[in-house]
């Protein structure tokens, strides 16, 4: 390998953490929007109240309370996958930097920071950088935050288009996380069914 891997970046939901009680308040607002969305909560730090205004909706206090309750239920039910901490701790022991790199709306960063922040060196969220994966601008921002070359970064994520194709198009290394075993025959040799496979990939390289 011409450039040694110096950092491993992980997608958030579906990769490092999962929501056990999915209620999707942002998606419900977007579906009910009375106006075309001029701005995206995925590319700007837009909270739930601002999202409601952006959608041109006039909701009463009870309706807003329900949305906030649903958001808090999602955040409270967000938990790391069983192997996530083990893998992050091992990467730190190996001297590698770690990052979370995800397409997220503002509130969903909170449980990741609270539960895994001590094991992550860098955060690169779409609402922070103004680009969504698989856009090359997202991966440029990730590498800038890591202060590394693309060839020195390994990206891990559960979405083939965003996390594998987007990353490799931007010059990063990538491994597709296929927890459900649904990868195609062509994808299978580029995939792992567990985050533990990341450690095996690094040993091979």
Q: Any overview of this molecule?
A:
By secondary structure, the chain is an alpha/beta fold. The protein folds into two domains: 7-18 and 81-204, Rossmann fold, CATH 3.40.50; 25-76, no CATH class. The chain contains ten helices and eight strands. The protein has helices at 25-32, 48-54, 61-76, 84-93, 109-116, 126-129, 136-146, 160-169, 185-188, 196-204, and strands spanning 7-10, 17-19, 78-80, 97-102, 122-125, 153-157, 173-177, 191-192. The strands form two sheets. Strands 5-4-1-6-7-8 form a six-stranded parallel β-sheet. It has a two-stranded antiparallel ribbon with strand order 2-3. Helix 8 (160-169) links the parallel strand 6 (153-157) and strand 7 (173-177). The model has no long low-confidence stretch (mean pLDDT 96).
